[in-house]
Amino acid sequence: MQIFTSFRAAILAALALSSCGQVDYNGTKPGEFQGSLFVMWLGEGGSSGDGAFLFVPDPDNRLSFDWPDENGKIHTIQPDMMYTDGGSIPKIGQVFNGFGPWGYAPAYMVHDWLYTARHCLRDGTPTPSEQKVADITFEQSAVILASAIKTLIDTRRVKEDDFAPQVISSAVAGPIARNKWNEAGACAGLRILEKDRQAAEAGIPGSSTALRRGGVRPATVVGQFSF
């Protein structure tokens, strides 16, 4: 047990090494989730990972997150459909509680959306939805992830963990994350291909069968989060 505990501590330290920024997770204010989210599997994808996945907001009850900033202003973040690999947690760390790539899926979707919007704003091609979060800074994006994770825990949607939220929140405040935030030319590659959009729409429970009759193979729902 002591060996395992020491190994766990070493892995957590390694995961945190990418961070030079710090997020005070314990002092972070929780926000409020509303709506519903699907995680969908499109297929095997490329040669890496577990396949190609999409975050898909429920079109009848879209996921949103209300986050109170340090001045008390409420920011409403409402993501659109996007590709995802869940939480970008190194494989070696995923064996530990709290570090699975899907454990905090709604929080990861909110955070990923801020990056998608940032890339497209930087490239000068934002959608109206992306334009709505133009005032969110890199530092705030890390705090928003911490707030979203804390919200999931406080509302008992996920189990409390002594390590994962702080480590994950700090990692997304570090230099690797900042470089990703400031990356140029990334927007075009983030846009949903039409065939994947149709597969997602056909996979939504209760959706019209018109797409399926037209030969569209529906994406598979592997998870749903409703608030």
Descriptors:
7 strands; 4-stranded antiparallel sheet; 227 residues; alpha+beta; single chain; 3-stranded antiparallel sheet; 37% helix; disordered N terminus
- Distance from N terminus to C terminus (CA atoms, Å) equals 38 Å
Q: How would you describe the shape?
A: globular
Report the oligomer. Answer: single chain
Low-confidence runs of at least 5 consecutive residues: 1-15, 87-101
The number of distinct β-strands equals 7
Could you give a short account of the major beta sheet?
Answer: 4 strands, antiparallel
Give the secondary structure arrangement, pairings included.
Layout: H1 2-16, E1 32-34, E2 36-43, E3 52-57, E4 64-68, E5 74-77, E6 82-84, H2 105-122, H3 128-131, H4 138-154, H5 164-171, H6 175-181, H7 194-203, H8 210-213, E7 220-226
Antiparallel strand pairs: 1-4, 2-3, 2-7, 3-6, 4-5
Question: How is this structure best described in words?
Answer:
Helix content is 37%, strand content 16%. The protein is of the alpha+beta class. The strands form 2 sheets. The protein has a 4-stranded antiparallel sheet. Strands 1-4-5 form a 3-stranded antiparallel sheet, with helices on one face. Strand 2 (36-43) and strand 3 (52-57) form a beta hairpin.
